[in-house]
Amino acid sequence: MTNFLEQVFNGLVSGSFYALLALGLAVIFGILGVVNFAHGAFYMLGAFGSWLALDKAGIGFWPALLLVPLALGLFGALLERIAVSRLASLDPLYNFLLTFGVTLVLQDLVVRFYGVGSQPYSAPKELQGTISLGLFDYPKYQAFVLVAALVVCSAVWLAFTRTRVGMVVRAATERPDVARALGVDVRRWIAPVFGFGIWLAGLSGVLAAPMRSVNPLMGSDLVITVFAVVVIGGLGSVSGAVIAGFALGLIEALGELYAPFLAQVLVFVVMAAVLLWRPAGLFGRQEVRA
Amino acid sequence: MKKVSRVVAVAAASSVVLAGCSGGGPGGGSGKISDGKIVLGVLTDESGPYAELAGKGAVEAVKMAVEDYKAQYGSKAVTQKIDVVDADTQNKPDVANTKAAELYDRQQADVVLDVPNSAAALSVATQAKNHKKLYIDISAASTALHGASCNKYTFQYAYDTRMLAYGTGTAVTKNGAKNWYIVYPDYAFGQDMQKSFTAAVGTAGGTVQAHDPTPFPGQDFSTYLLKAKSASPKPDVLGIMQAGGDLQNLVKQYNSFKLADAGIPMAVGLMTLTDIHSLGPDAFAGVEFTDPWYWNFDATNRAWADKFQARTGKRPTFVDAANYSAALQYLKTVQTAGTDASDSVVKGLEGAKVDDLFGRGGTIRAADHLLVHDAYLAKVKPAAQVSTDWDYEQIVQTIPGDQAFAPAAESGCKL
Questions:
Q1: pLDDT tens across B267-316, in order?
Q2: With an 8 Å Cβ cutoff, are B253 and A14 in contact?
Q3: Under 8 Å between Cβ of B197 and B208
Q4: From CA B256, how far away is CA B308, in angstroms rounded?
Q5: N- or C-end of chain A: fewer Cβ atoms within 10 A?
Q6: Which residue of B has its CA nearest to A256?
Q7: Can you say whether the dihedral through the CA atoms of A251, A252, A253, A259 is positive or negative?
């Protein structure tokens, strides 16, 4: 039983990353209709950024947790203004290609300057060691990641449902056309929302640095799974992305425990099953074609 | 036209006769060297996950071999025109395949060296066979290269999965860790390693109580770590077959789940100097693994490593050293044969004794084209004991070549 509970925790921790990344992808997709392929690259930059901050400027984990995602978020907003917005009126495929290109450029720049190897990064002193959770001891850092992800997701949920700005953004994200019809200037919100999505990717990257290998390819390995999470949750659905993120982390962990031979394909089996049952994903709305 | 080809044929025939007369001694005539020059092609991963292990370092090592060869033979060298060309596989088998054909056909490469990633290496071996040109594998570890998929023009020079498993599996089991829990990435290399380790552990009197395949590439290994930690009976050692980024993910998580404190040390199947450098020695402190070569082993290696560092700014990996040794061995064989014609060079390499900084006490086996040489059981030093940069390993034991590698009869190679 204890063992099972520990595995549930493991699942929720890896689900934390899925949830944060999928949330960012979902808001960007919602407001722009663009699948941001560069999401993995920004996750990687989050982790790399915290290593760079420590290595070049002696900036530790806590300040990096604030600064790195902020810098990346601003960069994301700028990227939206300079490039993404110019293609917004065309087929979404153009922006998909653009963000794919951005991924390659960012990845190769990092490889060019720092090589393909991993960089060392460890958890801050306060979060090293284990914490007792009653039935079992759990690594402090992993527990922190779970708490941080839950806090961020709840804060986003509160902001989206309880504040005026949040509701405008949510309207612009989930039903951009209706929001527009009701007089909301959706365009104004595109750059900040894009930046916010990138901020989330950067934040996940910083959180990943102490527990995962910090290398230029870390994002591209992960992004495929996150796409699957977003599809399962329902494209553009904010709560769907978060719930599907945690659920998938959990399913994966338990799958690895009870059916290791399935571990490699489990995510995609779940995705296929969900799409058969609900083609728009768990929380997605059916597209109504006029 | 006919006349020309007859002239060429006569010239070729007479040069063969000449070579026969001079007894294969050093001769100047460039007629015996195809295209008037020797071209060494280094086909390696310059932008993917193995770029640190091999990549530009390997290319530089081959250039060093060419310089050393020229310095040794001077004007007696079989030719002064020796080119080193390189190409990037991007760690993709299809790219490796195309680039190999390009090297042989268009760049007139007489030999292709390296090629990380076993799938890529196997396709290059087929290209070598079709082109009747040499391929000397360095970075790829699959035993198939000198086993089921062997061919006349392909050589395996540095190591194979059996060697990695034998060294570590045997030593760790004999030191008392009888009960193994193995995790391996679920693809060809990992499956190979798992089988080799299970065999080695069994022979040494231990058992493998469980082996779990993990997704490849993997981000989060905590499930497997906890499974191993709570397994009953408690395993004596966790055998980790992951490599590169997966290995680093796993080790970081191994450390945060405190498996070492729970009395489950790790043994790593394939670890390289660059892996230790990436995470820092403390993450791996005390881990035992098999290394085909180590730069700080003795004065000879150190001297070469110093030269290498002066050119590249880093210490050489075993792949760098093996590329150097293989290139030098190839050139010396061409020197003795007096020609770079593939069949003569293959004949010269078969059974050749290699005794340089990499191939200590080495012989290239004629039966399956594997370089059998000494390997080393190494242990990662804790950071406190690392006195100079990159000096992460302590060599615990030298494993003689005939123990490290399986006998030729077991390879299943039919040349």
A1: 999 999 999 998 889 889 889 999 999 999 999 999 999 999 999 999 99
A2: no
A3: yes
A4: 36
A5: C
A6: B223
A7: positive
pLDDT score of B4 more than 70: no
CA distance B254 to B267: 12
pLDDT tens, B361-392?
899 999 999 999 999 999 999 999 999 989 99
Domains, chain A, in order of start with CATH, read 2-277 (1.10.3470)
- Is A161 part of the contact surface with chain B (CB cutoff 8 Å)? no
Average pLDDT over residues B234-249: 92
Q: How many CA atoms lie within 13 A of A88 on its CB side?
A: 19
Q: Do B219 and A14 make contact, defined as CB atoms within 8 angstroms? A: yes
The pLDDT tens digits for B254-268 are 999 999 999 999 999
The A residues from 123 to 152 touching B (CB cutoff 8 Å) are: 123, 130, 137, 139, 141-142
Helix (H) / strand (E) containing B191: helix B188-203
For the segment A138-149, the average pLDDT, to the nearest whole number, is: 96
- In this structure, which amino acid lies at residue B175? N
> Residue B159 contacts by C-beta under 8 Å, 6 or more apart in sequence?
B141, B292, B318, B375
Residue B8: alpha-carbon gap to chain centroid: 39
Share of chain B above pLDDT 70, in %: 93
| Angstrom distance (rounded) from CA A250 to CA B228 | 19
At B21 the pLDDT is 42
% of chain A with per-residue pLDDT over 90 = 62
- B260-279 residues touching A, CB cutoff 8 A: 274, 277-279
Sign of the alpha-carbon dihedral angle for B216, B217, B220, B222? positive
Domains within chain B, CATH numbers bracketed: 26-159+297-373 (3.40.50.2300), 162-291+376-410 (3.40.50.2300)
| Whole-prediction pTM | 0.83
Whether chain A has a CB inside 8 Å of the CB on B226: the answer is yes
Q: Is residue B1's pLDDT more than 50? A: no
Residue window 244-263, chain B: list those with CB within 8 Å of chain A.
245-246, 248-249, 252-253, 256-258
How crowded is residue B130: how many other Cβ atoms within 10 Å of its Cβ? Answer: 13
Model ipTM value:
0.85
Asked if B258's CB is within 8 angstroms of A130's CB, the reply is: yes
**How many whole angstroms separate alpha carbon B294 and alpha carbon B36?**
37
For chain B, how many residues are written? 415
In tens, the pLDDT along B20-48 reads 444 334 444 445 899 899 999 999 999 88
